């Protein structure tokens, strides 16, 4: 913008001062919100909110299912008296099963729910037949 006279200069100065004031207010608001966000109470609140989120619960379920099945598979393959190579193989199998189950937890959950429903249907049908 080209300034040709003192009136335009005054308007431009006024505009820039106004813009500077808005900038200061924005910075103050950002600092206040940052201060509120880093207070321990608010950090704890946000952490608890994340824990109860469905995405986080699904991740915890997947990891738990994977680790549990991995440990069970290792226990089925080895015991305390197993030779070292068998224990190493058991650990590798545990790691593999843990990864596979953790990555496919939602599919495993869906299949187990379907199997459970089929079992309940059969039991209900047998119960109805006995009446």
Name its key features.
mainly alpha; single chain; 131 residues; 5 helices; 2 domains; 87% helix; elongated
Helix content: over 70%
Mean pLDDT: 85
**Element-by-element helix/strand order:** HHHHH
Q: Structural class of the helix and strand makeup?
A: mainly alpha
Beta-strand fraction estimate: under 5%
- N-to-C CA distance: 92 Å
Number of domains: 2
Low-confidence stretches: none
Shape: elongated
Number of strands: 0
Number of helices: 5
Q: Please compute the radius of gyration using only Cα atoms.
A: 32 Å
- Main sheet record: none
Brief account:
With 131 residues, this protein is mainly α.
Can you describe what's shown?
The protein is mostly helical and 131 residues long. The protein is built from 5 helices and no strands. It has helices at residues 6-37, 40-51, 54-77, 84-103, 105-130. It is elongated and about 95 Å long.
